[in-house]
Amino acid sequence: MEKVVGLTLFLCLIGRLVNQFISTEIRLIRKRRLRIRDLILNTQSRLRRQRRRQRQIQLYYQLRRRPPSVWVHQRANNWWTVVVPNFTDEQWSQNFRMSEDTFLYLCHRLRTAMEKRDTNFRLCVPIKKRVAIALWKLTTNSELRLVSHLFGVGLTTVWRCVREFCTAVNEVLLPELIPFPNDDKLMEMAMNFEQRYGLPQCVGVVAGSHIPNVPTEYHAEYFNHMGWHSIILQGVVDGNGLFWHVFAGSPGSMHDATVLHVSGLWDLIGQGLFPNHTKNIAGHEVGYYLLGNAAFPLQNWLMKPYSDTGQLTAEQRTFNQKICRASCVAEKAFSRLKGRWRCLLKRNDSHIDLVKTMVLTCCVLHNLCETHGEQYSEEWDPPAAGDQILVALPPEEDAEGAAMGVRDALVHYLNTDNCASPLLE
């Protein structure tokens, strides 16, 4: 009996210990579950806070306007901001080849085509500064680095200002300042030439000039008869020294007569662009015509001097003298063009397409300065470059009978008392 009671007590004790152990394990499991749940919740909460913080940072940097810190460098531009505003009229003319009033007019006309807007990354270069950079480059043909230091801008900015300025001038101002003359304008130019030089029906002088450049290909084609690389600028000048037709870009080795053909002027006039407005001179109906040098072919709309073979008559020599004196208006126009815009005198390292655009831009600016009465200093005159060396056409290619008839009529007219108009230099 005692053994049974003892065994029962022992089993009860064992059961109580087992129950206590199980209860303890259950509590530990519950605590571990709670800790795991809290850890998961805390981790999820921390991740949500991190994502929210990242979104806030991104939004902050998107809304905040911050200046670029790596690719924008602070540059000194004291010359433009301090010195130029105090320029006198003479200093404006010396540095930019025009007065401040004409400069402001130019900025106004090109504002729509050239003006830029500020961005979140940088402030744009103002329109006046952009125009001044381009004018300085055209005036001096300085290296891009020198222009960059002077105006406090980057090299790329200088190049972009020049390119965009020239493009804007050709698109906006060239059709206005170098238009092909209408009937009334042709009549006005003919009267002007007759009053100044005694030449009836003459409406202009066609001439060419070589512009130095450095071609990247086809070097032989651009190598001219003077021994350097160039492109040819052909222009038609009226009696006031203004261009009314320009063409640039032909290789320097090309003959003047060939340039005349490819310029389009030959086709335009041949298709009747000159109106049928004739004048009876020495019994011959003479229409409008241009003057050219010995390198051009004689046409009824293109007069040139007689080839001096030592057998010219006195009347023919007089004709040659008067033609040459009248043709000086083109020589003077090209001289003033190159004197103002020195980029036409020096070797230009820009791409050939940009050089063509720069040349046409200079012609437009020449007309702008002349019509606005801008002063021209004789010290700007370029040295004689010898680019008027001419190669005359063979006699069999020289002319048709109609053209020779026009020239003979002019010879007769210029050697009679009917030609009383003074010759002006």
UniProtKB/TrEMBL annotation:
It is found in: Nucleus. The keyword Oxidoreductase does not apply. It holds the Pfam family DDE_Tnp_4. The keyword Nuclease applies. Its main location: nucleus. One of its GO terms (molecular function) is metal ion binding. Residues 215-367 form the DDE Tnp4 domain. One of its GO terms (cellular component) is nucleus. Its cofactor is a divalent metal cation. InterPro entries: HARBI1-like, HARBI1_dom. Keywords: Hydrolase, Metal-binding, Nuclease, Nucleus. It comes from the Eukaryota. PANTHER family: PROTEIN ALP1-LIKE-RELATED, PTHR22930. Belongs to the HARBI1 family. This is Uncharacterized protein LOC108276552. It comes from Ictalurus punctatus. The lineage of its organism: Eukaryota, Metazoa, Chordata, Craniata, Vertebrata.
